[in-house]
Design goal:
Layout (H helix, E strand, L loop, with lengths): L1 H40 L1 H15 L5 H17 L3 H17 L3 H17 L3 H18 L2 H17 L3 H17 L3 H17 L3 H18 L2 H17 L3 H17 L3 H18 L2 H17 L3 H17 L3 H62 L4 H73 L5 H28 L3 E3 H11 L10 E8 L4 E3 H22 L3 E8 L3 E9 L6 H6 L3 H12 L3 E6 L5 E8 L3
Parallel strand pairs: 2-4
Antiparallel strand pairs: 1-3, 4-5, 5-7, 6-7
Helix pairs in contact: 1-2, 1-3, 2-3, 3-4, 4-5, 5-6, 5-7, 6-7, 7-8, 7-9, 8-9, 9-10, 9-11, 10-11, 11-12, 11-13, 12-13, 13-14, 13-15, 14-15, 15-16, 16-17, 16-18, 17-18, 18-20, 19-20, 20-22
């Protein structure tokens, strides 16, 4: 009888526990689904729910739920671009999945970490993570996870320009979606597969698969995928010199992007249309498309598409024979490329410094903890050992000193190693700047020089030139020489990490010497450098462009006899630059009410390097432009 009671009791307890565990599982799943749905419309509210979910799951015996909640938290930091924190949550999830040997969760962990590595351009680590996850999903026969990992591997290999490796993974992704009739994902899978065939130059197969993507997406009304497929197919036809077909497909893609208000994709397609219109001779639409592309790129802060838009505008003006405007937009394109390079270099340096400071603080924390442990041990030994108190203290002091010496050695060694790595990183940046300088000099510089020499030959050899032809040749020749001077100045800035104010003043003088050849005006450069401060390459280039713009405006419009540029530096001012003329002056308020690209450009350049820009002028009183920065800013 007693045994029977015990048996019933055990059955009741196990049934209760199983029922409770089942309820927990259902409740957690409902909470996870709720957070994922709310994440789209109310990210902050969803994140608050996820934090509560983590706290609750810590008390559950089944750590699978805790791992799931950590994985969920990682998604929010992924959305915010905080990949370091994202990886910490993902690694915590992976730890608990391994602890309970939940193999499917481990596979999902590798998929998620692979995506984070990819976003940081760590392609080797990304391939390794995706491959581990793929093997797990394949061994489990879990085709849902397998489709994710094979798709991610395929896209990654395409990005790495290894389409032969991408092909089998993307073909498997298509096969899985076709098997389960997952039409919603099949359109994108076809598109990724078509990209591989295109990279392999198998254009016939690529066109066939792009068309399958279009057909699939149209069947379910998936406009997002459809716009990409039309645009990619258009690009493929353009590669094959079929500009008319490419034009029609780009227009279809654009209409879809505009209908769903995808601004970023609309800007990219406008750039594509401008390039195709250049080939087709549709000049008006070529200009309009490039203008729309530039407007959208500036709106969404897409620097690469801004560069493309400037290149397309330069191409348009080149196509219609307006070489002066073409050179102007080409210069803006080059300036933006230089700026992008400088920003990337600065960002890389900043990341290295942040990493160094973080490691330094962690090491200091470890040192403090070790020191506290040693002190605690010393006090404990004093209380416990009375008979050999002096001896124990001496031994502890010796151990403490040895430990400190070892720690100091380790800290100094690591600091030297990090400094060496940092210097190597800076050396790499300098090498890259040198490479770009060489490319500008050897490629663009040599081409411009070739054009100038040929124009001079034309000017000398052609004897039947009208006055208008001579004027055009002289104008293009002058523009070419100005461009060559601009290239030399850009190379000078790129080749120097830091530039002293004295060197900068010398560069200003050499860049403005050409004006002194004119009988109508004289340009003087005065230097008063009491403290030879240093400025960055980006600052020097922007300051030089502002001065050149100011002098050029004075030369054209001021009717002055003399322009004076004063370059000063002292303990208060990092630099203080003044450009003044004794010309007719102007009414600043009336000038600023009109669109004045030159003044706006000078203000923008000054703002970009954190300088103050002041313009002072009045009719018949000349014009003074001042640019300065204080040492504490």
């Amino acid at each position: 009888m007693f045994r029977t009671i015990i048996l019933y009791f055990l059955v009741f307890v196990s049934s209760f526990l199983f029922s409770q565990s089942s309820k927990d599982s259902v409740h957690i799943k409902l909470l996870v689904d709720s957070v994922l749905q709310q994440r789209v419309s109310d990210a902050n509210g969803a994140k608050a729910k996820a934090i509560k979910l983590v706290s609750r799951c810590k008390n559950f015996p089944n750590k699978k739920y805790l791992a799931q909640s950590y994985m969920l938290m990682g998604l929010f930091y992924d959305d915010a671009g905080d990949y370091s924190t994202t990886m910490k949550y993902y690694d915590s999830a992976g730890f608990y999945y391994r602890k309970i040997n939940y193999v499917l969760g481990i596979g999902q962990y590798y998929n998620n970490t692979g995506l984070i590595f990819k976003k940081q351009n760590k392609f080797t680590e990304s391939v390794e993570a995706f491959t581990k996850g793929f093997r797990i999903a394949d061994s489990l026969g879990n085709e849902r996870l397998l489709s994710q990992l094979s798709n991610n591997l395929g896209i990654l290999y395409n990005d790495m320009e290894q389409p032969a490796k991408a092909l089998p993974y993307l073909e498997r992704t298509v096969a899985i979606h076709k098997k389960f009739e997952n039409t919603a994902k099949l359109g994108m899978a076809y598109q990724n597969l078509a990209v591989s065939f295109e990279l392999l130059n198998n254009f016939k197969k690529a066109i066939e698969v792009y068309q399958l993507s279009i057909k699939t997406s149209e069947s379910i009304g998936d406009s997002s995928i459809l716009q990409y497929s039309y645009d990619n197919l258009a690009g493929l036809y353009f590669k094959q010199k079929q500009a008319a077909k490419a034009y029609d497909l780009h227009k279809k893609a654009l209409n879809i992007a505009l209908a769903i208000d995808d601004r970023a994709q609309s800007g990219l397609i406008y750039n594509n249309i401008s390039e195709v219109c250049s080939e087709l001779g549709k000049r008006e639409e070529q200009l309009q498309a490039a203008g729309h592309a530039l407007e959208i790129a500036e709106e969404v802060s897409n620097t690469k598409e801004r560069i493309r838009a400037f290149a397309n505008l330069a191409r348009y003006y080149e196509d219609i024979g307006d070489h002066k405007k073409a050179l102007s937009f080409k210069q803006r394109e080059n300036d933006l490329i230089v700026k992008l390079f400088s920003e990337n270099a600065a960002e890389a340096t900043s990341e290295s410094m942040v990493k160094y400071e973080t490691e330094k603080k962690e090491k200091e924390k470890e040192l403090l903890e070790q020191k506290n442990k040693i002190i605690a041990l010393e006090l404990e030994n004093k209380e416990r050992v009375n008979a050999s108190k002096t001896k124990t203290i001496i031994i502890l002091i010796i151990l403490f000193l040895l430990t400190v010496l070892i720690i100091v050695f380790i800290v100094l060694y690591n600091r030297v190693r990090r400094q060496k790595q940092h210097l190597e990183s800076l050396a790499g940046l300098r090498d890259e700047r040198e490479r770009i300088s060489r490319d500008l000099h050897d490629n663009i510089g040599s081409q411009v020089s070739f054009i100038i020499h040929n124009l001079e030959w034309v000017q000398q050899e052609l004897t039947t030139k009208s006055q208008e032809e001579q004027k055009v040749i002289h104008s293009v020749n002058t523009a070419g020489r100005d461009l060559m001077q601009s290239i030399r100045e850009t190379i000078w800035a790129l080749k120097n990490d830091k530039i002293t104010i004295e060197n900068f003043g010398d560069r200003v003088y050499s860049s403005l010497k050409k004006y002194n050849d004119s009988p109508q005006i004289k340009v003087r450069v005065k230097q008063n450098v009491k403290q030879n401060n240093s400025i960055s390459a980006l600052e020097s280039l922007n300051l030089l462009r502002i001065i050149q713009e100011a002098v050029n405006n004075a030369f054209k419009y001021s009717q002055s006899k003399e322009i004076i540029i004063e370059v000063e530096a002292d303990e208060r001012y990092k630099y203080f630059i003044k450009v003044s003329d004794n010309g007719v002056g102007m009414n600043i308020e009336s000038v600023l009410q009109k669109d004045n690209y030159g003044i706006d450009n000078m203000k923008h350049r000054a703002s970009e390097i954190g300088s103050e820009f002041v313009m002072d002028s009045a009719p018949q009183k000349g014009t003074v432009i001042t640019i300065y920065k204080e040492n504490n800013t």
